[in-house]
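A reminder before we start the practical. When you read a complex entry, don't treat the lines as separate problems. The point of joint prediction is that each chain is placed relative to the others, so the output describes one connected object in space. Small molecules and nucleic acid strands, if listed, are placed in the same frame. In the example below there are two entries. Take a minute to note the order of the lines before looking further.
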Amino acid sequence: MAASGIDYGWRLQGKTVRLCADRSLMADESAHQMEKALRQMSMEYYVLDRCMQCGICSSACPQGLLHDDAPFSPRNFIQRARLGLLNLSEDELWKCTHCGHCQMMCPYEIPFLEVMISLRNLVVEQGAGHVPVSIRSALASIASGGNPWKADAAQRVAWLQGLDIPPVACEPARKVHLFLGCLAGYDPRARRTAQTAMRLLHLAGVPFEVLADEEVCCGDSVRRVGDLATFARLKQTNKRIMLSKGVHTIYTLSPHCYESIQTLYGWEENQAVRVMPFLKLLFQWMVDGVFALTDAPRGRVTYHDPCFFSKHQGLVDEPRQILKGLPGLEYVEMEHHGRKSLCCGGGGGGFWRDVAKGRRLAEVRLDEALATGADYVATSCPYCLAMLEDASKGDERYAKLEILDIGELVWKGVRP
Amino acid sequence: MSQAAAEKHTVMVVGGGVTGLGIALALDGLGIETLILEKGPSLGGKVKDYDKIFPDFVSGRDIVNELIARVERVPRISCRTGTVMAGLKETDTGYAVSTNDHQRLEVGAIVLASGFEVFDARLQEEYGYGIYPNVINGPELESYLDPHGPTGGRLLRPFDGKPARRVAIIFCVGSRSKRLGNPYCSRICCSYSTKQAIEIMERDPGAGVTCFYMDIRTYGRGFEEMYQYAQNLGVKYIRGRVSECSVLPEGDIQVRAENTLLGKPVQGVFDLVSLSVGMMPCADAACLADLLGIERGKDGFFSGVDQYRAPHDTRREGIFLAGSVTGLKPIHDCLNEALSVAGRVAAYLNNHAG
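Here is the predicted structure of the whole assembly.
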C-alpha cells in the first residue's frame, strides 16, 4: 500500500511517520506525528522544551559569521524540532561542528550537542534520513578497520620504524602510552607533529610507548555523528588493549581523543588510568625550565584555541603561557580567543564533510589570524591544524601564515 | 555586668526605603508607634536616586523626599540609620533584638522590608561590564539621565566624555538565566529600560536607541502604552539575546545578536551599551533568613506562608514581609504593600494586646 505524493518520513514501528508536504503548516497532523515519534525515540528531545527562543545560541554560533544568507541557527533548529518540522534528510543536520559555544551560552543550559547526537543517531542507526556519503564511508571504514581512511591497521605504526628516536623503556606495571589518534597514525602532516612530540618527550627523558597498531580510533567523531554502537565497540577495544598492557598513563595528542578517553571511557576506580593532554605536559616542562631555549623562531605568534580544549575543558591559559615563554616571539591575540574562540570546522564529523571553498569556518578563523599580523598560528589539535592548513592552501592571502602545532613551535626554539 | 534597659517599640521595620517609609506612615495613621532600622547612612533606599519613574515619569526622588519629610515630622516614628540586627530572641510580648551597635530593643512585631540588590553584570562575562568603559548598567544609565547626577543629566560616553547618541540597551541581563542562577523574570527591567529609552529620544530626537529583548513584558497599567510611545519615538526593538559585546579602537562597542524574528544575524556599533540588569534578593537575605528563622523560596526571595490568604505572614508569629523582599515589584506596588502590611500588623497587635 504505497502512500501517494512525496514521502518525507520514515518507518517507525511499522507505521510511516510523515512530515507535511507544506512545512509552513505547523498544526498539520503529520507534524504532530513526527514530533511524537522524535519524543519516543530520543530522551534528549525533552530538554528542548525549555528553550525560550532567545537566539543567544545562534548569535554565538560561528556559522553566523559565514557569508551565508541562511546560516545554521540552533534556535531555529530547536523551534522546528519542537513543531515536528525537521527534515532529517537535509544537509543541515551535519553542519554543527560541536564546538559547544551555543550550549556554553544557553541561559537554560540546553545540551544542544547531546540533542544533535541523538538526532544523528536516529539517522545513522535507524535510517531516519540520509547520511552524507563521506561520513557514511568514514563510519564504515572505522567500523571495519578502526580508522576513517580504509587504511591497513599496520600502517598506523609502520612509519615509526625508521625514526631515530630510541625507545625509553617503561616499568612494566607503569606503562605510559602515547595515544596517537587516527590523524597522527595515517596523515603525513600529523605524523610530523607526533614525531616532534616524541622528540620532546625523549629530550625531557619521559619514558613512553606507542600501542599504535593495536589502538583504534578514539571514537569522538564517531559518537558525535551519531554512531553510538560503533563508539561503544571502539571504546571497548581501546580499553581492553590499554588494560591488558598495564597502561598507567595515557598522553593524548588530540583534544578529541582526550575528551573521549578521559570523560566517556568510564574508567573504574580500581583501573588507576591517568589521561593527560600532551599540551599540559608541555606546559609543565616550560614551567620547570626543562629545555634550554634559543630566540629562534622569531616573529609574531597567535594561538588558535581548539574548541575541545577551550570550550569543553576550559584549558586556555597553559598554551598562552607556553607561547609567551618563547623568547623570540611576540604573542598576539585574535579577536575571538579563549572560551569565545571560533571553531575551525573540524569537530563533530565536520572533518569528514566536504565544504566548498568560501564557506569554511577555517577561513573566518584565518582572516582573524591575518588581522593580528601574526607570522605563526599555533594550535594544539590535529583537526584544527589540518582544517586551517587546508583552508590556507592555494590562497595568496594566507601565504604569510605558518600554521603549526604548539609543540613544533617549541621544538624550533629548543637548543639541541 | 550591667546593661542599659532595653528600648521599647511597638513595631520595628527593617529597611528605610520606599516600602519601609510607607509602612511606618501607614502604621502612624493607625496610631501605632514604629522604629525604622536602616543599614545605610540615610533613609530613602534606591528610589531616592531615580529622577523619573515609570510609567508616568514622575520623580521618584520627590516621592521619597516627601515620605522622609513626613516621617521626620511624626512623633510616633523614630529611625536608626547605620544599624542592623545582630541577634533575636522571642519574649512574652514579642521579640528582643540586639543591634550591631550593642543596643537592646524590645518590639511587638517586626516587618522585613529590606528590598533587593541589582545583579552584578560582571558575572555575565560576554558583555564586558567592568572591562569596557562604554558598557554600563541600568542604574548607571539612570544616573546619567538624572539632572542631579554626575553628568548633570547629559548622556556621555565614559570612555572619552563625548556625547553618546547611538545607544543599545540589552534586556534580561542576569534574569531568565538558569546558567547565572536567576531563572526568574525580574518584572520591572523591560519597563525601566523602555522608560530610559524614551528619555534619551525625547531629549535628543536624532539619537538612535536599540533595545535587544527576548519578550517585552510591560504588564502593568500604562506600561504597554509607554512601550507603544517608545516605538512612536523611534526606539528600535530587536528580538534576540546578545551573545557578545566587543570593543573597537575608539571605545565604540560592537554588539552581536540574532534577530530571531528575521532569523538573521545582526551586528551594530554603539557609543554606549546599557545592561538592563535584573534584581536579586538583598545581599544579606541569607543572613536575615537565619536570624529571623524564616523561609526563602528557591529564587532566594523570602516566602510568606500563604501568598493568597496571608501574603505578609511568615512562619514565625509577629514577623511580616513587605515590598520587594518577596520578589520584584514596581514602586507603586511596594507602596500598596506598605498599606496592606500595616493593616495586617495592626490586626496582629490588636489580637495580641496585653
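Discuss with your neighbour: Chain B has a mean pLDDT of 95. What might explain this?
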